[in-house]
Write a structure and sequence with these properties.
heterodimer; A: alpha+beta; 7-stranded antiparallel β-sheet; 7 strands; about 30% helix; B: 9-stranded mixed β-sheet; about 25% strand; globular
Chain lengths: ~140, ~425
Amino acid sequence: MAFHLSVFVENQPGKLERITRVLADAGLNIRAFSMASAGEFGVARVLVSDPERGFAALKDAKFTVSRRRILVALIDDRPGALHDLLVTLASHRVNVEDCYGFVLEGGRQAALVFEVEKVPEAEAALAGTGIRLVPDDGIYRL
Amino acid sequence: MYWDRAAETMDRRDLEHLQLGRLNATLQRAAHAPYYRDRHGARGVGPLSSLADLADLPFTTKADLRDHFPYGFLAVPLDDVVRLHSSSGTTGNPTVIYHTRADIEAWGDLLARCLYMAGVRKHDVFQNMMGYGLFTGGIGFHYGAERLGALTIPIGPGNSKRQLWFMQQFRTSVVHILPSYALRLATFFAETGIEPRRDLALRLAFVGAEPHTEETRRRIEEVWGIKVYNSYGLSEMCGPGVAFECPEQHGMHLWEDHFIPEVIDPDTGRVLPEGEWGELVLTSLARAATPLVRYRTRDLTRIVAGTCACGRTHRRIDRIRGRSDDMLIINGVNLFPMQVERTLMRVPAIGSNYLIEVHEESFMDRLHIKVELRQDAFEGTLAELEHLAARVTDELKAELGVTPVVKLLEAGSLPQGEGKAVRVVDLRQPGGKGA
């Protein structure tokens, strides 16, 4: 299973920077970073090269952090590609709880990171659609 | 000038004689209450031969009232009880005070005495903006104003637009109001272009139920263009009406035909010489259902020395300067930090460290409660955090009776006190109404 890290942050200057410093000091590469905020606090999502080490490093630095299971899909970097993916999931009644993406080196493909409650259903829905799910051990090497 | 000239201007010697007689009668009555029967013996204590002997009797505390809920302090058969009032606090048992019909009438008469002293007359229109219900503040003044014969509007607090409408339609001349609300209402007047001196018929305001400074009172007098009088009371003694300012506005006459005041050192319990600051201790002299002997009010004040130019012989107490315990008064609602703690302990995802900040926002007190999210309780979603903040807010509101602003913090971000942790930071301005 693949994970990203979910970190509780107070919405104040300098709070996010503390997270990135801890990860940099631990020699971990950040593949993607996103932030969801609800006014005075929020949750930062961090996809790092080694989630277990990242988790331990943040925990040691007293962060409130948890590991969340993710799926990563590779889609073509073209208009409508994300739409196709979401339509496929929706038609199988798979709800996307969290999602962000980044374009891969070379610019021909994009990686889409998403959290769903129904992982087997999501995997089944995407099988045979041409949308490729990145195997778990490949995610951190993207 | 006097509602009850004989009582209010009674010679000190006669007054003390009356007190001693009433004190001994109170001690006899108190012996019918299980609590005092256990403490003083089945035949009660006394009769005391002098008022000074009172200092030898044990104190009664709020904790005693709570621990002997519901009927431990009831000194008459339930058949004779016509009403109860109770504290809003839900920390354990509430403190419940019972009233016979005679208690209610005496209380109303005492309030009429207070209002008359400040200048209220039959022709006045009295708009009572204090809360009604279990809280004694609103209902106590209501009975007093009716007893006096003023036209009484039991409007209760809030809804400034409606308050103003009633003031204009009925030419309200007297109001009873929280000092914080008086200032907020003044802002509302300014916003709506109302100049109280020109557009309203107001003459007098009574403020109370929350500590406030002399500066606040003068400010209300200035912006409303009226006289503002201080009042003091507590539900354990009846409610408002225990002590009240006369037109001299120099201390509040404490009605010594109904109560015996003592001022003690809150740490040692020793009675302090007249004029020294300390905790006010009261003994009721005319209460039937719930007589209380040497009740520790936790309010800090002093006896104002000297006689008053108004001619009343009852001694005055000074403006309440604070509390000898950690009780907070938020917009007139009493609460203790322990209530916050108890509530937070019921929420597993919240750590045990917390901080209460009292802010002042547009003349209203605002309670900010900072709590820490427990590291191991976090599953990683924003939704759970929002849900948690909402749940903590709801539970605190249910417990405290005021809606706090809950701030969710990272674990370890609140200062960890060595020894006694600082749990409360009062950021209300000194010139405001901070206790």
